[in-house]
Amino acid sequence: MVSAPEGETGRLALEEKILAEQLRPSDAEREYIQRVADRLLAAIKESGKAEGMVVGSIARNTWVKGDRDLDVFMLFPPDMPREALEAEGLALARTIARKFTNIFCEKYAEHPYINATIGSIDVDLVPCYNVASAAHIQSAVDRTPFHTRYITEKINGLVDDVLLLKRFAKAGGIYGSDQMTEGFSGYLCELLVLHYGGFAPLLHAASEWGPHLKIDIEHHAAKVFEDPLIVIDPVDPRRNVAAAVSIDRMGEFVELARGYREAPSEAFFALPEQRGISRDDLAEILSKRGTALYAVTFATPPFIEEIVVPQLKRSTGAICDLLTCSGFVVHHAHYRMGPARCMLLFELLTDELPPIRRHEGPPVWNRANAEKFREKYRDATLPGPFIENGRYIMEVPREFVRAADLLTSPALLNVGVGRHVRISLEKDWCVFLGADCWQEEFAPFIAGFFSRCSPLVRITRRR
Fold first, then answer.
1. C-beta of residue 463 within 8 angstroms of C-beta of residue 260
2. Would you place residue 273 in the very low, low, confident or very high pLDDT band (cuts 50, 70, 90)?
3. End-to-end CA distance of the chain, in Å?
4. At 70, is the secondary structure helix, strand, or coil?
5. Coil, strand, or helix at residue 205?
6. Which candidate among 27, 172, 313, 396 keeps its CA 20 to 30 Å from the CA of 306?
């Protein structure tokens, strides 16, 4: 590991070392991907049905060594009906894929596309409309060709800076605009480098960022946003490129920028290891913490991550509210979407309660409601109703004494879980307690659940 370099010269030497050894693709790698791209474009042209275009980081020359993700768009006439675009676009993508490989599958975003493996390259064949400008897009993917043209025209001289930023963000665990990460997309990284004029100037500015920062490169914003970070899309004035960035990921980027500027080191570009946890280790952790761990698992709904993950987040919050309202204090909760099963994990400070609880009634001066409350509980065997601070109070039996009973009850279906999550829960769900929450497929998730720390803390501990 490289220690903190001396001054500006040392930082530049460190970054050049990282670029040369880890980030810049070799000429051979570039040529290999270009040959595959050229063959795909030729096949699309020969079909006579659409115009082919390579988009994304490979087209913009901002891809990191080893990240062989090739996005090929098939541009159809804008007057084609949406149903025809989906049907004919998918058919053409399937036909093109078959010419190169038998390893491909259908995937879904706003509309279906084909994902194929050609040699060692992951290829997406995506149909879209060939619109005149981003102002006339008919689906979200129609905007992507304009992103590619914009960045390609302006990124000259800053490609190395983009590579550094992408690896810096990935090493910090904040790269990706997916629903689980809520971080920085590749396009956002490119725009930030363009706006600030490089990797170093960006980190200098980011060290002083605060919430609701707004960047409008083209000075054409046509909408007001309330997101933590606002970067107006240069090709679409009504879109915030940074909409996916959560306040936490923004804060982590600020922290990383400060840490790197104070003491640059190779550790800021080292990809984090994915560590698991054993069942015995989990049992030991819980014994030391003295908390109660519960896992709720169910079949993963048959939809893409962009649909399922927000529902997992909402469902986790709703169940936390249910536990809290029932008297069980939630210390920490999180969620994970797996290929076959989803897991909602809850750490409780207590999971067993007395069989009675306080029930507050209306103030005595609210005569009508106060008399109804008093009459309702007049013959109860538990203490009350009595008056405390001018309000009727009653002791009542607690419906759920154990958290396990609550989590296995139909009450779980009566809170605001996501629609697709509810459908899965209605079929079946399982509840696990303590070390029994451990499952091999979720071992990295559970390990991360109990090893939370900020990216800078993780990096400095690793030095």
1. no
2. confident
3. 8
4. strand
5. helix
6. 172
d(CA 51, CA 76): 7
Q: What is the 3-state secondary structure (H, E, C) of 325-375?
A: HCCCCEEEEEEEECCCEEEEEEEECCCECCCEEEEEEEECCCHHHHHHHHH
How far is the C-alpha of 114 from the C-alpha of 94, rounded, in Å? 6
Q: Is the pLDDT of residue 458 over 50?
A: yes
% helix, strand, coil for the chain, step of 5? 45, 20, 35
Q: 3-class DSSP state for residue 114?
A: strand
Q: Which amino acid is at 226?
A: E
Helix (H, G, I), strand (E, B) or coil at 116: strand
Residues paired with 126 in a beta bridge: 73
Q: Which amino acid type is present at position 305?
A: E
Cα distances (Å, whole numbers) of residue 72 to 95, 343, 380: 14, 35, 72
Confidence category of residue 5, pLDDT binned at 50, 70, 90: low
The total of other beta-carbon atoms located within 10 Å of residue 227's CB is: 18
**Alpha carbon distance 111, 82 (integer Å):** 9
Distance CA 463, CA 461 (A): 6
Task: Provide the pLDDT for residue 198.
Answer: 98
